Amino acid sequence: MIQSGAINKHKRMKKKILVVDDEITIRTLLEKFLSHTYEVTAVSNGQEGLDWLQTGNIPDLMIVDLEMPVLDGYDYVKNVRSSGYFKDIPIMMLSGVDSSSERVKCYKLGANDFMIKPFNPEELSLKIEIVLSHHNE
C-alpha cells in the first residue's frame, strides 16, 4: 500500500511565472504557451505585479514588459530589486524596442535576461529554462 505522502513526493509542483505586460495579446500568448509547463499568472502593469507579490505570492520567475502604464518595467525592476523579500527572483524583460542601451539599463537594474518582441515562443521557453536552472544552482 502506498501512503499519500509518498505519492506527493513524486508529484512535481509546477514552477510559477508572473507575466507583467499591458498588451493582452502578449499576456494571452504567454499564458497559453507556458501553462503546459508552468503555473502562469498575468497582470497588466507593474503596479498590479507589485500588488500581487505583496499579497504573499512568490513566483519562480517574472517576465516583465518595459513600456507599460501606471508603473513601467524599469520602475518595477527597481522596486523588486530594492525589496529584501523579492530581490532574488529572476526577471526576464520584454521590449518592443531593440536597443543596446535599453538592455544595458535593464541588466544594470538587475534583470537576468532580455528579449525583443515579437519573440519566438520556443526561444523564450528555452531562455526561461536557462534562467531557472542558473537560479536554482
Task: Note the topology.
Layout: H1 4-10, E1 16-20, H2 24-34, E2 39-43, H3 46-54, E3 61-65, H4 73-82, E4 91-95, H5 100-109, E5 113-116, H6 121-135
Helix pairs in contact: 3-4
How does the major sheet shape up? 5 strands, parallel
Portion of residues within helices: 40-55%
Q: Within the largest sheet, what's the order of strands? A: 2-1-3-4-5
SS-derived structural category = alpha/beta
| Outline | globular
What would you say the CATH architecture is? 3-Layer(aba) Sandwich
Name of the CATH superfamily: Response regulator
Q: How far do the termini sit from each other?
A: 35 Å
Order of helices and strands: HEHEHEHEHEH
Number of DSSP helical runs: 6
What percent strand?
15-25%
Number of domains: 1
Low-confidence spans: pLDDT under 50, at least 5 residues? Answer: 1-10
Average of pLDDT = 91
Number of DSSP-assigned strands: 5
Summary keywords:
alpha/beta; Rossmann fold; five-stranded parallel β-sheet; 6 helices; globular; disordered N terminus
Task: Give a concise summary.
By secondary structure, this protein is of the alpha/beta class. It is 45% helix and 18% strand.
How would you describe what is shown here?
The longest helix has 15 residues, at 121-135. Strand 4, helix 5 (100-109) and strand 5 form a beta-alpha-beta unit. The protein is built from 6 helices and 5 strands, in the order αβαβαβαβαβα. It has 137 residues and is of the alpha/beta class. The protein has one domain (13-135): 3-Layer(aba) Sandwich (Rossmann fold), CATH 3.40.50. It has helices at residues 4-10, 24-34, 46-54, 73-82, 100-109, 121-135; strands spanning 16-20, 39-43, 61-65, 91-95, 113-116. It has a 5-stranded parallel sheet, sandwiched between helices.
